[in-house]
Amino acid sequence: MIFGVAHRNFRVLFGVLVLSFAFGSLHAFGVLIEPLQNMLETERGSISLAYSLSIIGVTTGVFVSTHLNRLLTPQQIAILCGVMGASGLALVSIWPSLGMLLLGYGVLFGFSNGLAYSLFLEQAARALPQSKGLALGIATAMYGAGAAAFTQILSPLAHTDTLDTALAVLSFSVLLAGGLAALMFSRARIVVEQGNLPAPNLHPQARDIFRLWAIYCLAASGGLMVIVHAVGLMRGFGASEISIMAAPTLNAVGNIAGSLLGGVIADRLTARRALAVPLLISLISLVVMRVVSSEVALLGLMTACGFGYGALIAIVPVVIRKMFDPVHVGWVFGRVFTAWGIAGLVGPYVAGNIFDHTHGYELAIIASICCLACAAGLNMFDNSRTHQETKDRELDK
Fold it and tell me: Which CATH superfamily is domain 203-396 in?
């Protein structure tokens, strides 16, 4: 019987990986920008607005997922994500226009992505309740792997005359993933975590939530700046074309590795020490990046920055589970995750504007270093107790 339950839980984990991989394709948008610009005959800024809207959609989807969980089962949410995301992509493929791109990719695909993100993190934690960090790390790593894989899958199709085919492939993949995940979730028996409090009452913990939100926002801003502007950064350092093209790939590899190991780190360390790992790795990498000139070293630092960002993404959900009562976890994560949305909009945008005005990334790197230093400082002086420590203290009384 024990083996049977474990087997069913691993089926859920398979559903998590399928859903995570497919919806990670949202971040393969870079290969679609130029073909979309040529097909729609509009400015690149207008095309890029679709990705910005998708970031807002992801954040909104995660934020409202807690309320949706009270109305729908996990398998119903998986189907909803697949149908909504596939429909949005199909709209762009069938009726190509800027309005449909903003609605289909930005709003529908982005929002369904946020629902899927929240769903697969929750299901991953429940599938391996004794190794939540490992499960969440694998799930977030697969999300990054999906972005990297679909970049390669869509790249040969991303031409003006075959763009509708690329979007159709993406639409079918999302729909299929939603269906498979629903099948896996519906056949699993998972022990649902129960909190010790009858209803959410987060006012006493507001300071802890805000500190974690600020750490996440500041750290993610720096990480996303490097991810989005990896090519420009390497070109600014005077690297060769081979190194310039290798930088985004190595950054993605570091991101995936960081997600995998970040979950393990979060399982083994306290909340504060776990957060300190990605913060310090990213901070040190950016500081060293300003003084080295070797292309090999720069590529290594690009990989390290990706590792720090990936680890941060995997560690934050685990830290929330450690710091707060289980009944509050979804509520807290939805609010803390808005920090990622703001970082995704502000970080790359500010770095791009700095480049436009200074014709370089020196000030952008300095700004990212300052953000990471502030995040590390907030984390260093965090005296909050985890949920388990609070329970132990109450029992001692």
Answer: MFS general substrate transporter like domains (1.20.1250.20)
pTM here is 0.80
- Span 139-177, pLDDT tens digits: 988 998 888 888 888 878 777 678 888 899 999 999 999
What's the CATH number of domain 2-186, 1.20.1250.20, 2.30.40.10, 3.30.930.10, 3.30.70.1400? 1.20.1250.20
Domain extents in the chain: 2-186, 203-396
Tokens of 189: 């028996």
CB-based contact 153:32 (threshold 8 Å) = no
Give the model's pLDDT for residue 7.
60
Residue 238 Ramachandran class (φ > 0 left, ψ -120 to 50 alpha, else beta) = left
Rg, the chain, Cα only: 21
Alpha-carbon span 13 to 278, nearest angstrom: 25
Query: What does the pLDDT read at residue 388?
Result: 46
DSSP designation for 385: P
